[in-house]
Inverse folding.
């Protein structure tokens, strides 16, 4: 009997709560009591808050790493093995949260995607419901070609089609392959330069945060910047997928 | 009451070891025979008593159908996965196994699951430790290959429980080795651990700094090891024998085991000599003799050791590192003694590997270090922390038979992912979740980890329930799942059907079985020892009756002695070892004067201060018996 169907929906984290230490009663820092050092139950906070950071996109990765190791020493189950079973459970949850937070924040793209997710914005590629629908209906998921790449993509697709035809006929056209190779390189350059573009939006975002004093960018600016960042990431993903497809075709013709 | 020691155990494919932290240094605890390595071989003797280790190796050659080796290859696996293994290893698998069911193999006319066999090996190690400390051992850290999946890890934990050990942590073998190395060297840097054991290959890349051992990437092959080299040599020998001598010994289990022992010995010799001569006694008085040059051997094994290259390259790629950026390569596992393997490692990583540490013992030593850390640490380990990773991506099966990865491989553990589910039918009370491990796109190409049924979702309209399912990979690398329906706040009941594994009830049942057998074993052993003592004291008494000292005794004394002698002889026929001991003690008491007289006389052979039965006693138990009361909580 096939299992009953289910759908998966996206999650949004809950706002931060303040706590006092269960062991000594002092107002505690997020993870362990500043007074007595005991591990605390994890609060449902976002990753930035977990590290005591504002939701800014420029980040000192070296400092983050140091904080990660410090927190690991305090929270890891191995070093809390002598606590009661409740403490052990908390340290398990805390350190998994720590690891997830660190993994997300230290990578520039993941960090950006995470912030966007906190803002309630979904990236096209990551739209799970679109993906599932595509799979269910067997249709190819519609991926919008970034407008500035339209011409290039069109031409490249033509060339790839030609290459595939040639291979079927057993023919070989080194000039064509070279052309395609050049296109691929141009795309890779574009891919890398997009990261630079993204970083300019980071700085804009961060200064909006600084100006607000509330760690919240004003709504209009916020909408503008997030949509720009989404656009950059979508274009970047598109190019990455395209480059990957081109590589596959090129590799198989060697 | 002093806390019992936590030991570190390397449960290896070929050999197993137990170690502990002695002050600032980890040391291996030897067995009764003085050797540090306990071969992972289990046999049943003619009384169906379990024999483990070196003693079992003899049984393996003489009665191979009552023995098993390399059981680690079967842990956490189903009958479908081991078809290759079955061609190369003499595992006698039960016939009526269903897909997804735990394996059962035959030893003599009894059947065992792989965790039960492993439990016997663990119990032997436990006893060795208890003999050494003179007190009970109940907690251990056990190592597993880094590339072991969830089912294989769970099986190892189950084996620990069956053996009466609380497994505080499973540690990945390369990571454990790096602990031993790091403790030794106290240096920071990027280290690669190349671990080629009897049955598994692991490559782990770690960053060591200020006592933190952080795994960056890990890869491996759980079907690759020294066993494969052995099997290749055995196959060649058998083919040779059939060709040269016209003798087909493929089905002759004893001959195959004799050949196996010979090729293993030869393989070891070739690590330090340029050639070796095989000389094997075959049935019907025939002999197989052949000279093997190291060069030939290296050609033969090249394809096998080449299989380690792919995982190494992938690990480097996942770590984002070039080979030159690895500062140190540590070798682990007996197979890394082969010169060709060392050459391959040198070529891969562009440097000479580190060969100071004993590749057979380093994993157990590392496990002891981790045991020490968990126990609260000591001066040597106070700044040490292990940050390991999960080797395989965790995914759930979604519509279309596709795997949706929710935790990626090489994620630092503990790691978690939360998914939200809702229902599509009004009043739907259950949701089925299929969890997988692996890197492939399609669920059918990944390893089925378990099926969870979320039951008891309160009846609501379709799309209304919001079930939060949390997937957590703990520090052992094992998956834990919890679920909560958010709107009602109700904990959903999770029923796990583990693949190729034992349910909690089954494990409980096995612990009790093992426990009962242990009681029986204990009684048997005590009985045998008591009877031995009886024989000794009666023989000594007989001898004493021929000595001049006997003549000095009064007839009352002689009568009393005769009475006690008869009492002992009578009770010795029964099965109550405690009664026998009482009778022995009584006779000892009663013959004290006789013993003294014999000592005084010139023809005495009894040593001063000893009673009648203390002469010629041989080995008696010197430490508290491992089955002693201390084991019970």
């Amino acid at each position: 009997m096939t299992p009953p169907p289910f759908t998966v929906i996206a999650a949004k984290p809950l706002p931060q709560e303040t706590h006092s230490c269960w062991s000594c009663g002092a107002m505690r820092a997020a993870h362990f009591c500043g007074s007595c050092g005991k591990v605390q139950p994890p609060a449902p906070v976002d990753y930035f808050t977990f590290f005591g950071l504002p939701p800014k996109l420029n980040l000192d990765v070296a400092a983050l790493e140091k904080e990660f190791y410090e927190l690991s020493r305090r929270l890891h189950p191995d070093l809390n093995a002598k606590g009661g079973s409740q403490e052990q459970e908390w340290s398990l949850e805390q350190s998994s949260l720590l690891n997830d937070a660190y993994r997300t924040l230290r990578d520039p793209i993941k960090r950006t995607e995470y912030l966007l997710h906190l803002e309630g914005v979904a990236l096209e590629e990551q739209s799970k419901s679109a993906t599932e629908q595509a799979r269910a209906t067997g249709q190819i998921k519609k991926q919008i070609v970034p407008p500035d790449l339209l011409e290039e993509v069109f031409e490249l697709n033509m060339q790839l089609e030609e290459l595939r035809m040639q291979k079927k006929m057993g023919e070989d056209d080194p000039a064509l392959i070279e052309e395609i190779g050049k296109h691929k390189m141009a795309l890779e350059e574009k891919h890398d330069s997009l990261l630079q573009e993204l970083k300019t939006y980071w700085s804009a975002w961060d200064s909006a945060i600084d100006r607000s004093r509330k760690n919240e960018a004003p709504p209009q600016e916020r909408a503008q910047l997030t949509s720009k960042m989404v656009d950059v990431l979508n274009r970047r993903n598109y190019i990455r997928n395209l480059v990957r497809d081109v590589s596959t075709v090129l590799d198989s013709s060697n | 009451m002093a806390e019992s020691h936590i030991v570190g155990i390397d449960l290896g494919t070929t050999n197993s070891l137990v170690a502990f932290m002695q002050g600032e240094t980890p040391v291996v605890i030897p067995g009764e025979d003085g050797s540090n390595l306990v071969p992972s071989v289990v046999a049943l003797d003619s009384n169906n008593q379990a024999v483990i280790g070196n003693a079992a190796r003899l049984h393996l050659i003489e009665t191979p159908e009552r023995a098993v080796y390399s059981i680690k290859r079967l842990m956490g696996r189903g009958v479908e996965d081991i078809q290759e293994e079955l061609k190369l290893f003499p595992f006698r698998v039960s016939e009526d196994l269903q897909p997804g069911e735990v394996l059962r193999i035959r030893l003599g006319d009894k059947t065992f699951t792989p965790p039960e066999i492993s439990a016997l090996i663990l119990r032997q190690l436990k006893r060795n430790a208890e003999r050494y400390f003179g007190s009970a051992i109940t907690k251990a850290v056990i190592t597993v290959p880094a590339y072991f999946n969830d089912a294989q890890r769970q099986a190892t934990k189950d084996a620990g429980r069956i053996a009466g050990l609380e497994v505080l942590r499973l540690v990945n073998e390369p990571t454990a080795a790096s602990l031993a190395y790091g403790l030794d060297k106290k240096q920071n840097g990027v280290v690669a651990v190349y671990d080629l054991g009897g049955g598994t290959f692991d490559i782990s890349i770690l960053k060591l700094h200020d006592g933190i051992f952080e795994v960056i990437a890990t890869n491996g092959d759980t079907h690759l090891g020294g066993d494969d080299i052995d099997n290749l040599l055995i196959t060649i020998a058998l083919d040779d024998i059939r060709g040269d001598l016209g003798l087909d010994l493929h089905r002759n289990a004893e001959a195959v085991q004799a050949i196996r022992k010979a090729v293993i010995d030869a393989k070891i010799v070739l690590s330090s000599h340029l050639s070796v001569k095989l000389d094997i006694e075959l049935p019907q008085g025939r002999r197989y003799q052949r000279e093997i040059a190291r060069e030939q051997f290296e050609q033969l094994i090249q394809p096998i050791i080449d299989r380690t290259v792919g995982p190494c390259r992938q690990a480097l790629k996942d770590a984002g590192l070039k080979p030159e950026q690895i500062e140190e390569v540590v070798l682990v596992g007996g197979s890394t003694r082969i010169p060709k393997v060392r050459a391959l490692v040198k070529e891969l990583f562009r440097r000479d590997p580190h060969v100071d540490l004993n590749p057979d013992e380093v994993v157990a030593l590392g496990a002891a270090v981790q045991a020490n850390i968990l126990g609260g640490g000591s001066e040597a380990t106070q700044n040490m922390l292990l940050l390991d990773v999960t080797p395989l991506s965790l995914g759930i099966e979604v519509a279309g038979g596709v795997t949706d990865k929710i935790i990626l491989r090489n994620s630092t553990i503990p790691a978690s992912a939360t998914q939200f589910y809702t229902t599509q039918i009004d009043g739907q009370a259950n949701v089925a979740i299929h969890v997988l491990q692996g890197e492939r796109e399609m669920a059918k190409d990944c390893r089925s980890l378990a099926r969870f049924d979320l039951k008891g979702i309160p009846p609501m309209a379709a799309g209304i329930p919001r079930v939060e399912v949390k997937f957590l990979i703990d520090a052992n690398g094992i998956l834990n799942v919890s679920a909560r329906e958010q709107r009602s706040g109700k904990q959903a009941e999770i029923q796990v059907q583990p693949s190729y594994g034992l349910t909690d009830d089954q494990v409980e049942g096995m612990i009790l079985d093992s426990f009962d057998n242990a009681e029986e074993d204990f009684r048997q052993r005590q009985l045998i020892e008591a009877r031995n003592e009886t024989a000794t004291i009666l023989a000594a008494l007989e001898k004493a009756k021929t000595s001049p000292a006997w003549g000095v005794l009064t007839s009352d004394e002689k009568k009393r002695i005769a009475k006690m002698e008869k009492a002992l002889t009578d009770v010795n026929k029964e099965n109550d070892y405690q009664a026998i001991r009482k009778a022995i003690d009584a006779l000892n008491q009663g013959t004290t004067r006789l013993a003294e007289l014999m000592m005084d006389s010139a023809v005495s052979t009894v040593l001063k201060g000893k009673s009648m039965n203390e002469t010629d006693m041989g080995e008696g138990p010197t430490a508290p018996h491992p089955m002693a009361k201390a084991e019970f909580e």
About this structure: Chain B has 16 helices and 29 strands. The two ends of chain B are 13 Å apart (CA to CA). Chain B has four domains: 6-224+307-387, 226-305, 392-502, 506-631.
